[in-house]
Specification:
Pfam families: RRM_1. With about 210 residues, the protein is of the alpha+beta class. It has 6 helices and 9 strands. A 5-stranded antiparallel β-sheet has the order 1-7-2-4-3. The longest helix has 27 residues.
Length: about 210
């Protein structure tokens, strides 16, 4: 009986894996290959379905040196390139069909892996920044990030609770006016009580020091 369950599970994973191949080819023109390479595409592990870069990197780094991790915006899949084909094969064997829990939402998802010849996404990284824009890496320390998150009362009112049901892939907190998700606009007839929380003061203070 156990052998039969394992066999059925393997067949299910294979079906999902093949479906992911067809979806990637149909929508993006990216072809998966049957032989092992350094590069993988991981279905169900994308920004579009709630997987964070931090969580995915932590998962894939268990199996070798990650040279590239691309997570296209709003897509439910990501691309990973390892230092060697052996490392990619190790990750493929361990992660294909593996169930993981999305950290921020508590949802269980199953990963489906395929090999690709190379990791490439045309719109992943802009060629240049707009004039006047400066990027400061790691401006917020882990300790400051924790203080900011702790300063927010995420579930303190009914409007926020309703927003969480609407936006299952991210947490929100409204200030100023209520935001209407049905028309993507604010309702000026519904001002919200209170001002901006400590998080804005902390962030402004940090920016002024740079």
């Amino acid at each position: 009986e156990d052998h039969l369950k394992v066999h059925k599970m393997k067949k299910k994973v294979l079906r999902k894996q093949v479906r992911a191949q067809h979806t990637l080819m149909r929508h993006e023109g990216i072809e998966c290959v049957s032989h092992a390479t350094q590069s993988l595409v991981i279905a169900n592990a994308g920004l579009g379905n709630g997987m964070s870069r931090h969580q995915l990197l932590r998962i894939v780094e268990e199996y070798g040196l990650v040279e590239t991790l691309l997570m296209p915006s709003n897509k439910p899949y990501s691309f990973v390139k390892y230092g060697t084909t052996e490392e990619a094969k190790k990750a493929f064997d361990a992660l294909n069909g593996k169930e993981v829990t999305l950290e921020d939402f508590g949802q269980n998802i199953v990963l489906y892996i395929n090999f690709v010849e190379k990791v490439f996404w045309q719109n992943a990284i802009p060629t240049s920044l707009p004039p006047g824009l400066m990027v400061i890496e790691k401006i917020i320390s882990p300790e400051e990030e924790m203080r900011m998150l702790e300063s927010i009362d995420w579930m303190g009112d009914e409007d926020t609770q309703n927003a969480q049901k609407t936006l299952k892939h991210r947490r929100v907190k409204h200030f100023g006016y209520e935001f209407c998700y049905d028309n993507n606009n604010v309702d000026k007839d519904k001002p919200l009580p209170g001002g901006l929380p400590e998080i804005c003061d902390l962030f402004l203070e940090k920016c002024l020091k740079q």
